[in-house]
Amino acid sequence: MNIEEFRASVAEKEPPIGLSVTLAALWWDAKGGWTRSHAMVDELETMDGMAVHAYLAPQRGSGLEC
User: Fold this and answer.
1) According to the model, what pLDDT value does residue 64 have?
2) How confident is the model over 38-49, as a mean pLDDT?
């Protein structure tokens, strides 16, 4: 899947089958599902998981640490 296909997939109701957890988290975030997205990577201790978690953290808006 390339970036254009990923962006187009956000118009669907569910993420494409076969996305990694981190890409699925970014997909849900793109749909406005921050809570669901954050829950997917909150304790995912991989480099990708921590990178997506760091990306999501400032979006929380509460000023609290994740």
Assistant:
1) 44
2) 95
